[in-house]
Specification:
The protein is of the alpha+beta class and about 325 residues long. Helix content is about 55%, strand content about 20%. The protein has 10 helices and 9 strands. Strand 7 (about 80) and strand 8 form a beta hairpin. The longest helix has about 70 residues, at about 215-290. The chain is rod-shaped.
């Protein structure tokens, strides 16, 4: 009998504990660090709580909407926007934002999906308005430091050897001086966007351009112009190099001819001295024994000429006198 009573108490206690446990979770909510909660009752805001920990609410009547107070990022859509020069460019941006007024955010947007859509629309609209008022150079550059770069150093050329006048003209004519750079334009976009986002309890921290490029229909023309400019530079350098080559080859040819002339003069001088010495030797030898000299020279002549003579009709001439003599 006592066991049955005990079992009945346990059976009654279990549902009570389950209901109590359920009511406890329905009556409490937890706030994490860097979070804010809005407690609403029948659609009306009761309170805003930003203190981390466990808090109470009215079960079944109060709803808790939790929002992060951290910095969040949103990527904009790639847009095709005309610049001040009416040249279409494609702009891709990213931004960081955060909630600064939870009540206002809840009243105007309710959730993150609506917030992302609204932020994207406002930033994209501000980008179109601001970018269309500025030149392409201002959008892609942050300063005028490019005007301070020496084109000679940039191309790594020796100006002592190359005429840089036309080359520098080609390099510097595209370096436009800007009054407002990319960072200032991004700041203008941020200010214009914040003026509209403030009514939604949102603060835009920055706008960063991830990518800026010419539209597809303009890229071929731009690349062709860049190729033409580089070809002009290459042609200038190449023609200057050919001129230096011709100058060096001409100098080498002059030096070669000068060396050959000096060598020829020296060779002729040596040859003249040698001929004079040879003539003196021949004269001395001839004077010692003229008959033997004539005999020796005739034998040398026979040696050179007879192998080339195909037919001899007679040896009675003076030329063959040594062949006919018995002594």
């Amino acid at each position: 009998m006592a066991l049955q009573i005990k079992n009945k108490k346990i059976l009654i206690l279990i549902p009570i504990l389950v209901i109590a446990f359920f009511l406890f979770f329905e009556a409490t909510y937890i706030i994490e660090e860097n979070e804010a909660c809005i407690v609403t009752r029948l659609g009306e805001i009761q309170r805003v709580n930003t203190n981390a920990g466990i808090h109470l609410k009215v079960p079944f009547l109060d709803n808790v909407n939790t929002y992060s107070m951290r910095i969040m990022r949103i990527d904009g859509d790639t847009q095709k926007i005309p610049t001040k020069e009416n040249q279409f460019i494609e702009v891709n941006s990213t931004s960081r934002w955060r909630i600064i007024d939870v009540s206002l955010f809840y009243k105007s947007l309710k959730n993150y999906t609506a917030a992302f859509s609204k932020i994207t629309d406002i930033i994209d609209s501000s980008c179109r308005d601001i970018i269309s008022l500025n030149s392409f150079d201002s959008i892609v550059r942050s300063s005028n430091i490019i005007n301070e770069i020496n084109a000679e150093e940039e191309l790594n050329l020796d100006t002592n050897d190359i005429d840089m006048s036309s080359l520098l003209m080609t390099q510097q004519k595209t370096h436009v001086t800007i009054t407002k750079g990319r960072e200032e334009i991004a700041e203008d976009i941020k200010k214009r966007s914040n003026a509209q986002l403030a009514s939604f309890g949102i603060e835009l921290l920055d706008v960063i351009f991830k990518g800026i490029k010419y539209a597809d229909e303009l890229q071929d023309a731009v690349f062709s112009r860049m190729i033409t400019e580089r070809n002009q530079i290459a042609s200038t350098i190449r023609s200057t190099g050919e001129g230096k080559k011709a100058e060096i080859l001409g100098r080498l040819e002059n030096e070669k001819q000068s060396i050959l002339s000096e060598s020829y003069a020296e060779a002729e001088t040596i040859r003249g001295r040698a001929d004079a010495e040879a003539a003196a030797i021949y004269s001395s030898a001839y004077n010692k024994d003229p008959a033997f000299y004539n005999f020796w020279k005739s034998l040398e002549t026979y040696k050179k000429t007879l192998p080339n003579i195909e037919k001899i009709m007679s040896t009675d001439s003076e030329f063959f006198r040594f062949l006919d003599q018995a002594q």
